[in-house]
Amino acid sequence: MRFIGKTALITGGGGVIGKATARLLHKEGANVVLVDHAPAALEPIAAELGATRMLTLVADVTKADDCRAYAGKAQGTFGPIDIFFNNAGIEGPSAPMAEFPEDEFARVMAVNVTGVFLGLKYVLPVMRHGGSVIITSSTAGLRGAANFTAYTASKHAVVGLMRTAAVENARRGIRVNTIHPAMVDSEMMRRIERTRQGNKSLDEVQQEFRNRIPLGRYLKPEEIADTVAHLASDASAMVTGTQVLVDGGSML
After folding, report:
1. Is 151 among the residues known to form the active site?
2. Is 7-183+220-246 a CATH 3.40.50.720 domain?
3. Rg, C-alpha atoms of the chain
4. Looking at per-residue confidence, does 78 or 194 come out higher?
5. pTM of the full structure
């Protein structure tokens, strides 16, 4: 029960990582505020966790008014924020850079970069001294990823936002870090697999992806949640400005 009396705000709360993190933090005593653009994505987790210490909010993270509103509503309901999991993101299409659609590039950057920036802009002022911010990046935020121009650029960009926020907020005792998962067993991964399938079977494509991970399998959303909880806890009190790999060895 590491988080009794603390409040956690999670964007991308309707996705598998957001839901897994919500379950864990709520189980360990936190008030949990889940934000997602799709009401239907929030309904199952809201029903699962119940009304106690739980709030769901619908917001578009690319819009300043929505981000200001979710930060204010979370603070107004539970008080200052202790944990901000700045997690909302999309992968966008798969295409070589010279063929990548400009409108899709702008869409991915709006969600993955502007959304993270706006979250920091409006949540940091309502965070408690000693709080923790965790931003979801990717192994693609540490290296190139062919055919994922916008996703790769966006996941590199949030590292810059993290470092700036870590420096600016250190005097308040607020820690800011990025996490960098490898491939997670999720619907996002199913979409990526389909783009690579061609004449291969789905099993063959999945095995090719698994072969890139020395530990030999996709990550579970719960394993990402465990890392988020560690960074949110007092056990990482001196960890800030850091890129934390959760990758099964894929960056070796």
Report:
1. yes
2. yes
3. 18
4. 78
5. 0.95
